[in-house]
Amino acid sequence: MIDKISFLLIEGFRNLWRHKLTASTSIFSVFLTLFLIGILIIVGQNSHYPIEYFRSKYKIEVFFKKDTSDAQEKIIIEKIREFPEVRSVTPITKKDAVRIFKDQFGEDVVKMLGYNPLPGSAVVNINKDGFEQVNLEPLIEEIQSLNGVDIVRYQGRLISRLERFYQMMINLLKISTGVILLVSIVVISNTIKLTIYTCRELIKTLQLLGATKMFIKVPFILEGIFQSIIGASLAFFTIFGLMKAGNHYLPQLVTLRIQLDLYFGIGLLIISVVIGFIGSYRAVSKFL
Amino acid sequence: MLFFYSISIGNLEKSQVGFFTVIAFNGVSYFFSKEIGVKDVNFEISQDEFAFLIGPTGSGKTTIMRLIYMDLMPDEGFVTVGGISSNKIKKRKIPMVRRKIGMVFQDYHLLSDRNIFENVALPLHMVGIRRDEVRERVMNMLNELNIEEKEKKKPFELSGGEQQRVCIARALVKEPEVILADEPTGNLDPVAAHDLIKLLENVNNEGTAVFMVSHNYNLIKNRGHRILEIQMGEIQNQ
Fold it and tell me: Going by DSSP bridges, is the β-strand pair A86-92/A121-126 parallel, antiparallel, or unpaired?
């Protein structure tokens, strides 16, 4: 049994050389599709950087009622901090508001009016991590319902537009990856079908000599998997090289850095084995 | 060895009672869609027997061969090869029947991208024989057929006669119960054809049944072997 397995394994490897023309076509198509998939994965993996940047700028301003004391404001702020969506809360007391007014308009409002008309407030920043869409409406409603809160202001329309756009991009990436994956399976399967078509005499001879379907199929399936692994390795090293070059030159243009982790390489390898197996199995099953 | 004992039935007078039967046709008919393939064929080939099947082009010789290696299944009757009957076998078990048969083809069917050693070794790898044993058995076979120095050559580097020897080596290396030779002399010159028949006779003398298809009567006459004649899909003379 071990001798049979090792023979089939070696046959799969040798077939790469025997069918070098069709094998190189297949490897190139795997390389191309996995390169595209790899780029999409990297874009997906790094897409949180811009959205995190925007989310860090999301600002909810909570204005307290005029008759709310500083102590009551502190209690309300603590309550706001307890919401899971909230990252930080910066309190702006009535005194701070006067100072800010003076900084911005150059006038002391207390001296002008003889009293402080400005209410105490707080600036709420939300959590920026995660690929899920951020919906601030429920949080706004909850803050609004707190006793002592007068008005809640935020960039509602802008935030929902940004979040919608980000979600659209993520979904587009997922769909594109799926489509490319399917196309690559069909391409590889057709390329291997072509290889097998050129080997139909060989298959007929093997059948007449008493080879089982499995004995005929396995080298072709292994050949397909080897082709995919080679294509995937080429795609990985190309992406790795481009990423290195990108990180070398990009920092001069933007502050983002492209990242690539070990799981990316393993993922690409698994995808390639799956594509190779399904593609070659489909192809060889049509002939046997 | 899974031979079954030959029972002489009907017109099978020439079946060698006392020997084991390796191929038996029992009332076999096979019809192609528009023409008759073969009709009510009955014959047996015994162990150690050398038999020829002769007939003109289109008479049904190839259909008989295909029925033997179960590439076709009879519409009526049944074929038995090495104890395995066509009416009982499951499709996935057909390779087991073919492993009992050594096939020799007119156009050799050698794999051009493999060398001679690899071609001859193929049937042994199919049954999972150990690598060192494969080497020993293949080299012995190549020695017996005087083509051991061609071991590393590709089939297209050999003459027709040598390629046919390789084909015979590949058929014999798995120690089959019967050699099926489908017009093996078709592509050979008269001298090489005569040598090939002598070689198959030697194989037969060693104890392997040989069933050979030919349309060259002059080549096979006066050799003392049974000749089955087929005309229009029916066996005329045994």
Answer: antiparallel
CA distance A158 to A153: 13
Provide the 3-class DSSP secondary structure of residue A97. Answer: helix
Q: Do B126 and A210 touch (CB under 8 A)?
A: yes
> Are residues B31 and B37 in contact, defined by beta-carbon separation less than 8 angstroms?
yes
Which class for A82: exposed (0-12), middle (13-18), buried (19 or more C-beta within 10 A)?
A: exposed
* Ranges of each domain in chain A: 2-49+164-287, 59-154
Quick one: which of B206, B202, B213, B110 has its CA closest to B164?
A: B110
Query: What is the distance between the alpha carbons of residues A12 and A28, in angstroms, rounded to a whole number?
Result: 18
Looking at residue B101, its amino acid is I
d(CA A265, CA A45): 13
Distance CA A193, CA A280 (A): 8
Task: Name the residue facing B126 among A1, A204, A211 (closest C-beta).
Answer: A211
Helix (H) or strand (E) holding A101: helix A94-105
Closest partner CB to B111 (pick from A1, A205, A213): A205
What ipTM score was computed for the predicted complex, to two decimals?
0.81
Q: What is the pLDDT of residues B93-122, one digit of tens each?
A: 999 999 999 998 888 889 888 899 999 999
Q: Residue A134 — very low, low, confident or very high, per pLDDT cuts 50/70/90?
A: low
Which structure tokens are listed for A5? 């397995």
Fold of A59-154: Alpha-Beta Plaits (3.30.70)
Please list the residues that pair with B180 across neighbouring strands. Answer: B103, B211
pLDDT at B180: 93
Q: What is the pLDDT of residue B14?
A: 35
B132 contacts on A by Cβ (under 8 Å): none
Cα separation, B50 vs B38, in Å, equals 22
